[in-house]
Design brief:
Layout (H helix, E strand, L loop, with lengths): L6 H16 L1 H24 L5 H18 L7 H24 L7 H34 L11
Helix pairs in contact: 1-5, 2-3, 2-5, 3-4, 3-5, 4-5
């Protein structure tokens, strides 16, 4: 494996993703995002709108998906981390509009306030994670190392 021609590039991409997630700010964003996803999943039972089954199921699934995406379980390379953060941002935006979009009359004061606040927090945390991944990439470029998928001469 040490003789593989792309081993240096693979190591650099892994190190870049580690830099993005190993800073105190990156860890704080990841932890807050994970907790936001868990809250979103449990919010129908916490705030008392679990009787509105379509939104309760929506929040459960979206919250679990958001927590899984933002926990970094699948994204140890820059490209995946960056893409997952944008996917999580889309889930945050969906959370905001869900009370008006899902089937049934579920746009009560509780559901709207819960989903708008949680969705805004989720989207902002996802944008912060994306910015951290981008900062790791620009830090690598400033350090003078090769960009991913390029070979050194």
């Amino acid at each position: 494996m040490e003789m593989h021609p792309d081993i240096i590039d693979m190591r650099e991409r892994h190190e870049m993703a580690e830099r993005a997630t190993s800073t105190p700010q990156g860890q704080a964003v990841g932890t807050l995002a994970f907790l936001t996803g868990i809250y979103l999943a449990a919010s129908p039972w916490i705030t008392g709108f679990n009787g509105l089954s379509t939104l309760a199921v929506n929040n459960l699934l979206v919250g679990l998906a958001y927590a899984l995406l933002m926990s970094g379980g699948f994204g140890r390379a820059y490209e995946r981390t960056h893409s997952m953060a944008w996917g999580a941002c889309a889930l945050g935006l969906w959370t905001i509009v869900a009370p008006w979009v899902v089937a049934g009359d579920v746009s009560t004061t509780k559901t709207v306030v819960n989903n708008v606040i949680t969705g805004v927090i989720a989207a902002l945390l996802a944008l912060a994670a994306s910015a951290a991944a981008r900062a790791a990439e620009s830090g690598k470029a400033r350090a003078g190392t090769a960009a991913p998928h390029t070979r050194r001469g």
